[in-house]
């Protein structure tokens, strides 16, 4: 095992409190303590200790296989594209961050002073990464069956939300996560035009991903228009669609393979 942070009597009580709240039980609390150790804390420690990044890497894989298995077995009437769409929402940073906040993960993270000062304890990305590390730690400590049960307990309600169309659709975040992983870059948003009078303007925005523009999306402000453009790009890149579905899509979502607009990126 890696070198985890030391566990004091007080820290042990904190970890047991998390176990009660999350309805899980570790055989070795050192795994759980390491899962909560952000790299900023490890970097500032007086003695050499590891951070939770390798556990996060492992937990991401455990999460993915559990979600895929569940979707494959329980939604047998859905095609591969629909299963991919559902998975993309439930394993997103937005969803994992929300689950992590429900589990009060921010109260247990070991974090460096600088990161603490900048509000790192409540950052969605840090909370989501920590949740994946907890999943990885639980897998190492208690095996796949226990980890699978834990993942299903926290994820199945989110799958239900997607099936009932009650989930959050932060397409800008989802698209950025995808582009970072797939292309090692970022989406670039460009304002195409503004239409309408000053009191009732409509904004039109395209988003460029790896040299291809998607959109334009439209909205009553640039934020709404960017979300609309991100949704068109995300559906085109991540969610396979049938030709029939593409023909029925609104006009602004179909026009998505143009060269990027010359306007400034946002």
Describe the structure.
The chain has 266 residues and is mainly alpha-helical. The chain folds into two domains: 9-163, Ribonuclease III domain (Ribonuclease iii, N-terminal Endonuclease Domain, Chain A, Orthogonal Bundle); 171-254, Double Stranded RNA Binding Domain. Helix content is 58%, strand content 9%. It has 13 helices and three strands. It has a three-stranded antiparallel β-sheet. Helix 5 (80-90) crosses helix 9 (144-163). The radius of gyration is 21 Å and the shape is globular. The N and C termini lie far apart (45 Å). Residues 241-266 have low confidence and may be disordered.
How is this fold's topology laid out?
Blueprint: H1 9-22, H2 29-35, H3 39-44, H4 53-74, H5 80-90, H6 93-102, H7 113-117, H8 124-142, H9 144-163, H10 171-183, E1 188-195, E2 202-209, E3 212-219, H11 222-237, H12 243-248, H13 251-254
